[in-house]
């Protein structure tokens, strides 16, 4: 459902080719909203067309293959409205960087400094992309929601960079081995194990 909703949302702003939808949903500004892989876009568009929610027309180009252009129908707009009323699942956040940060003592100073530099550089790149996108979106009533969403992303990226730069020394110190060293890894007891396991069968997780 999420990929269908994403395609309909994009087409509600204007007609687009399958290539444009795929590019925007996997590496463009719409890639921030849903987990849409390259292989999921065209099947979703085909199903939307079969359901009468979008139409497809072929436009011939001189010396090039015809391109398929998709348009949303009135039924598609109604379906999108219904989808937008649905209860949303929690946002999903995963970060390989935070795994390295959690294991800073094991990773060592060189790896941590490299990871921090890379994280800041990548975040600055995304911040610049969002700022450039905001400069291209006209400030009209129809675009208020888009501008608000872009502003949210810019604020998140800005605060992330500020935190990384303000606190990198602490993480580097941990990685360099100057922090207090435990004689054994800290033990985290999982909640389910504590509730259901016997006193001699409780599961333990050793953090990095």
Q: Which shape, going by the Cα principal axes? A: elongated
**Overall number of domains:** 2
The level of helicity is: 55-70%
Going by CATH, the homologous superfamily of the largest domain would be: Winged helix-like DNA-binding domain superfamily/Winged helix DNA-binding domain
- For this structure, the quaternary state is single chain
Q: Give the percentage of residues in beta strands.
A: 5-15%
What is the chain-wise order of helices and strands?
A: HEHHEEHHHHHEHE
Average pLDDT taken over every residue: 86
Total number of strands = 5
How many angstroms does the end-to-end distance come to?
Answer: 38 Å
**What characterizes the major β-sheet?**
3 strands, antiparallel
User: What name does CATH use for the topology of the largest domain?
Assistant: Arc Repressor Mutant, subunit A
CATH hierarchy: architecture of the largest domain? Orthogonal Bundle
Rounded to the nearest angstrom, the radius of gyration is 24 Å
Helical element count?
Answer: 9
Assigned CATH class of the largest domain: Mainly Alpha
Secondary structure class reads alpha+beta
Structural notes for this entry:
- This protein has 208 residues and is an alpha+beta fold.
- It has 2 domains: 3-85, Winged helix-like DNA-binding domain superfamily/Winged helix DNA-binding domain (Arc Repressor Mutant, subunit A); 96-176.
- Helix content is 58%, strand content 12%.
- It contains 9 helices and 5 strands.
- The protein has helices spanning 2-12, 18-26, 38-50, 74-84, 96-102, 104-107, 109-136, 144-175, 191-196, and strands at residues 16-17, 54-61, 64-72, 187-189, 204-206.
- The strands form 2 sheets. A 3-stranded antiparallel β-sheet has the order 1-3-2. The chain has a two-stranded antiparallel sheet with strand order 4-5.
- A hairpin with a 2-residue loop joins strand 2 (54-61) and strand 3.
- Helix 1 (2-12) packs across helix 4 and helix 7 runs antiparallel to helix 8.
- The protein is elongated and about 60 Å long.
- InterPro entries: Tscrpt_reg_PadR_N, WH-like_DNA-bd_sf, WH_DNA-bd_sf.
- This is Transcriptional regulator, Acidobacterial, PadR-family.
- Residues 8-80 form the Transcription regulator PadR N-terminal domain.
- Pfam families: PadR.
């Amino acid at each position: 459902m999420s990929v269908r909703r994403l395609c309909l949302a994009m087409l509600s702003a204007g007609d687009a080719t399958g290539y444009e939808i795929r590019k925007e949903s996997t590496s463009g500004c719409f890639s921030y909203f849903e987990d849409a892989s390259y292989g999921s876009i065209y099947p979703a568009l085909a199903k939307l067309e079969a359901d009468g929610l979008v139409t497809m027309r072929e436009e011939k180009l001189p010396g090039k293959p015809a391109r398929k252009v998709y348009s949303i129908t009135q039924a598609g707009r109604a379906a999108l409205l219904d989808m937008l009323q649905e209860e949303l699942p929690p946002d999903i956040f995963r970060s390989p960087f935070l795994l390295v940060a959690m294991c800073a003592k094991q990773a060592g100073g060189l790896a941590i400094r490299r990871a921090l530099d890379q994280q800041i550089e990548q975040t600055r790149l995304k911040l610049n992309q969002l700022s450039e996108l905001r400069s291209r979106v006209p400030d009209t009533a129809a675009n208020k929601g888009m501008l608000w969403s872009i502003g949210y992303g810019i604020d998140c990226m800005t605060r992330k960079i500020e935190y990384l730069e303000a606190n990198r020394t602490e993480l580097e110190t941990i990685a360099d081995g100057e922090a207090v060293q435990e004689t054994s890894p800290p033990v985290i007891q999982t909640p389910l194990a504590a509730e259901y396991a016997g006193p001699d069968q409780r599961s333990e997780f050793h953090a990095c």
